[in-house]
Design goal:
By secondary structure, this protein is mainly α. The longest helix has 17 residues. The radius of gyration is 29 Å and the shape is elongated.
């Protein structure tokens, strides 16, 4: 099973808040909204000194973000603490962020936890999510998945898509809670409604595999495409594969090439390899051994054994590249050292014929033996890589 995406921290400083009193405060808010932070600072500072909790929070935010004043985390902490003492949840949350990052204060996850809890109990959704994350990954606390789920649920009820996704991830993996694909599906669907690309990708995977739901390749394609359109490289790769095989869609090598290119452009090794295959065969694009070699080369540099073997063959034969048997031997060896049976056999052949290396029958016999062992272990990959 493909490794699940890790939960991601969301540390978002909340925006300026306005009380129902004080014309000066509203004047400051209007100025800040228009980007005139200097005027906002001048309006809010006197109010903050007189004890206005929200003015204190906004002073902290300005020092935190460096708007209207030079960024100063220590001063931000000072103003946040004053507002936090008066119960401003946003200030409590932002203090938690600064303590967790060690900005303006000595880093302390313990203090971050305290401020997150205070904010979370007042319904601050970002604090609820961060608490869930801390207990989920054990950041500054002992991992506690019951508490993680508790805080994620509270954030999820407030439509926090990342919390919804993380709940789905916990239930899908089953590594820390009882595995439940139906619950995973439920939470992924909720996150997907808010355009969470990771949730959309996982939904595609569940429909493709038939986990927690009846297998449905058309729905898998639907969810993969939503995720792929947002730039998810694994979804782009999977779409490319499904188009190349006609799974859930009408087979189209040109569409496969389109999606593989997008994934390959983001460094997806399997997409790079598959593009090499398609260009080599002239499927979905005009046949071009030079382009095939370029894509194989990218995948080979990242250690893909099949790409190393294919590129080695091209150098041995001079297809799309200048013939160079020494490079061919080098590439065969890279692949052979990873247990690639055909590369091992090719190395044996090169040693028998003294092609790119000195003739050495003993060395040839060694590689032929290894090739036979690897064939029995089925170490080679089929031409077009499978779905992740």
């Amino acid at each position: 099973m493909k490794k699940l995406f890790s939960a991601a921290s969301i540390f978002i400083l909340l925006q300026f808040s306005a009380p129902v009193f004080a014309d000066d405060f509203q004047d400051g808010l209007d100025a800040a909204t228009q980007g005139d932070f200097k005027t906002a600072f001048e309006k809010w500072k006197p109010l903050a000194k007189k004890g206005s909790a929200l003015a204190q929070f906004n002073m902290g935010l300005m020092y935190d973000k460096g708007e209207g004043v030079k960024r100063n985390y220590k001063k931000a902490v000072r103003w946040y603490k004053l507002a936090a003492k008066q119960g401003v949840a946003s200030a409590q949350f932002n203090l938690g962020v600064l303590y967790s990052k060690g900005k303006g204060v000595r880093q302390s996850f313990k203090k971050a936890l305290i401020f997150y809890v205070r904010a979370a109990k007042q319904g601050n959704v970002s604090a609820q999510f961060n608490l869930g994350l801390m207990y989920d990954i054990g950041e500054g606390v002992t991992p506690d998945y019951k508490r993680a789920i508790k805080w994620y649920r509270l954030a999820a009820k407030q439509n926090n898509a990342q919390a919804q996704f993380n709940l789905g991830q916990l239930y899908e993996s089953g590594e820390r809670v009882t595995q439940d694909y139906k619950k995973a599906l439920k939470w992924y669907k909720q996150a997907a409604k808010y355009d969470n690309e990771l949730a959309q990708f996982r939904l595609g995977n569940l429909f493709e595999k038939g986990k927690g739901v009846t297998k449905n390749h058309k729905k898998a394609v639907k969810w993969y495409k939503l995720s792929a359109d947002k730039g998810n490289e694994t979804a782009q790769f999977n779409l490319g594969y499904m188009y190349s095989r006609g799974i859930g869609v009408k087979q189209s090598y040109s569409e496969a090439v389109k999606w593989y290119r997008l994934a390959a452009g983001q460094g997806n090794v399997l997409a790079q390899f598959n593009l090499g295959v398609l260009y080599s065969d002239g499927r979905g694009a005009n046949q071009s051994y030079s382009k095939a070699a370029s894509w194989f080369r990218l995948a080979a540099k990242k250690g893909d054994a099949e790409a190393q073997f294919r590129l080695g063959m091209m150098y041995e034969e001079g297809d799309g590249v200048d013939k160079d048997v020494e490079k061919a031997v080098k590439l065969y060896r890279f692949a052979a050292d990873q247990g690639h049976a055909m590369a091992q056999g090719s190395l044996g052949w090169m040693y028998i014929n003294g092609n790119g290396v000195e003739e050495d029958l003993d060395e040839a016999a060694k590689w032929y033996r290894r090739s036979e062992q690897s064939r029995k272990a089925k170490n080679d990959r089929s031409p077009l890589s499978t779905l992740r």
